[in-house]
Structure formats: structure tokens, C-alpha cells
Automatic annotation (TrEMBL):
PANTHER family: ARAC-FAMILY TRANSCRIPTIONAL REGULATOR, HTH-TYPE TRANSCRIPTIONAL REGULATOR EXSA. InterPro entries: AraC-bd, Homeodomain-like_sf, HTH-like, HTH_AraC, HTH_AraC-typ_CS. SMART domains: HTH_ARAC (SM00342). This is Melibiose operon regulatory protein. Transmembrane segments: none annotated. One of its GO terms (molecular function) is DNA-binding transcription factor activity. Residues 172-270 form the HTH araC/xylS-type domain. Keywords: DNA-binding, Transcription, Transcription regulation. It comes from Clostridium oryzae.
């Protein structure tokens, strides 16, 4: 691989995906080579292979050297410049997606922490070049490409961080489980088991973050889905109650009236007259 040649390989993946890789590349910079000031529409991570340079953002200047990387956030003006005497060589990845912010948070990147050190003992560097090489040769389909990107992020997640989910992470995972399984006959213990915590602890977290028990959150989620389905005449009330995880009409009517002060039939009648 000739590292003196600049590579910038575009990738076309759906923008509404969990993670989208727009481009990647590498460059051996000339002394004092700079880029910016410029604003990007997506995230960029530059990983410095050798040499050093400076990264300017929000009136701060960061000195970045080999085995370190810096994050460029979307919508933020940035400027970076290679050192005069020891110019950097780096690889970069440009990405976004609705999971991107959460992934960066998990690997401790944020607006207040834009510099990250590599402790992967060479694994990260190897994966980055494999990603670039496979783009250039067109070996991978879009799913293989994204899997390589996830692997790169996994090397940035320390062992302690990967095993130490925060309280908000548990609540988020519980809500995601409910979102994808509300139509089934689930118990709160099933949710707790799925995310790897005790049911009592899950109850405590929901009360802290939502002032609502997991059971009440589940019922409210089901009722809101049912409410939306009632606006479509093609669904019968029986279809709706079973589709939303209720096992009988009496329970469905009871909870619906308690939440919305009217029965499902009355709600639909109000909508259509």
C-alpha cells in the first residue's frame, strides 16, 4: 500500500441507517499542510499514524500525535494543520447515522472530549487499513462495510467501559425491548433478564428516569399504539387489542378508559363521527 497517495473512497449507504459510512482515506501530509476552517455535515475521526499536528476547534487548540485521534462533529467549524518539522500521516473515516451519537458517547467521545488515545495494540490501525483496502478493491458489500466500522469502534471501547452500562443505558435498552416486543405477552422480568439486570433494579431506574414503573410504561406504550391504530378504520378493535399485547377486551377497555377517559369505541366514534 502506497501511503503517499491520498485515498478518498465514497460509499453509498442509506442515510437513515443506524450507521452510515460516507468515505474513508489516508494521507501523508506535507509540512504545515492544513484544512479549514470548514464545517462538516457529518462526523469525522482522524487517526494519526505518525508525526503530529494541531487541531483547532471552539477557540481551543489540541496537539495530536501518533496513536491518537481527534473527532470532528457535524455543524462545527474546525481547522487542523500538520506540524512544520514532523508532519502527521493519518487515516480518516466520515460517518453518521442515528446510532452514531450513542456509539461515540460509549467510547467516551464528546464535545468536551474530542481526543482519544488508541490502546488496541495495533488492532485499530490494522482494521482501518483493511477497511480502506476493501473499499478500494470493492470486495465488501454494504453490510460487510458497516460490520468493519462497528469492529473499529469496538477497539475504541475499553473492557471496563464495555462492561459498565450506565443507568440511562439500561433504561434505553428496556424501552427498545418494549418497542420491539410490546405485541407479545411479556413480563417485566423478561425485560430485566434481556438487558441483564434485576427486576427490582429496573423498577428503581424507571422511577428515577421516568417517574413511572416499567409496567405502567409498557401499558402506556401499548395504549398509544392502540390509539394510533384506532385512527385507521381497516383495523377492528379486536385486531387492535391483540396486536398491542392485550389478551382480552375487558383489560383493554379498562386501561384505555383509565388513560384517555373514554372507551376505544368512543374514541373512534369521536374521530369519525
Amino acid at each position: 500500500m502506497d501511503k503517499l497517495i491520498v485515498k478518498n473512497v465514497p460509499v453509498h449507504v442509506k442515510a437513515n441507517a443506524p450507521l452510515t459510512l460516507y468515505f474513508c482515506g489516508w494521507e501523508k501530509c506535507e509540512p504545515s499542510h492544513f484544512y479549514g476552517p470548514a464545517i462538516r455535515p457529518h462526523y469525522l475521526i482522524h487517526f494519526v499514524l505518525s508525526g503530529k499536528g494541531s487541531y483547532h476547534v471552539r477557540n481551543k487548540i489540541y496537539q495530536v500525535s501518533a496513536e491518537e485521534m481527534f473527532l470532528i462533529e457535524p455543524g462545527v467549524s474546525t481547522y487542523y494543520e500538520a506540524d512544520l518539522h514532523d508532519p502527521w500521516e493519518y487515516v480518516w473515516i466520515g460517518f453518521d447515522g442515528y446510532e452514531a451519537e450513542n456509539i461515540l458517547k460509549k467510547i467516551c467521545f464528546s464535545s468536551k472530549n474530542l481526543i482519544h488515545k488508541d490502546y488496541s495494540c495495533g488492532k485499530l490501525k490494522k482494521s482501518l487499513f483493511e477497511l480502506i483496502d476493501n473499499f478500494e478493491l470493492g470486495k465488501d458489500n454494504e453490510y460487510a462495510i458497516i460490520s468493519r466500522l462497528y469492529q473499529i469502534f469496538s477497539y475504541l471501547l475499553s473492557k471496563d467501559e464495555s462492561n459498565d452500562s450506565t443507568a440511562s443505558d439500561y433504561v434505553f435498552l428496556a424501552k427498545e425491548y418494549i418497542k420491539n416486543n410490546y405485541s407479545y405477552d411479556m413480563k417485566i422480568s423478561d425485560i430485566a433478564k434481556h438487558i441483564g439486570i434485576d427486576r427490582t433494579y429496573l423498577y428503581k431506574l424507571f422511577m428515577q428516569h421516568n417517574n413511572l414503573s416499567p409496567q405502567k410504561y409498557l401499558i402506556q406504550y401499548r395504549l398509544n399504539v392502540a390509539k394510533n391504530m384506532l385512527a385507521d378504520k381497516k383495523y377492528s378493535i379486536t385486531e387492535i387489542l391483540y396486536s398491542c399485547g392485550f389478551r382480552d377486551a375487558a383489560s383493554f377497555y379498562k386501561h384505555f378508559k383509565c388513560c384517555f377517559n373514554m372507551t376505544p369505541s368512543q374514541y373512534r366514534k369521536n374521530l369519525f363521527g
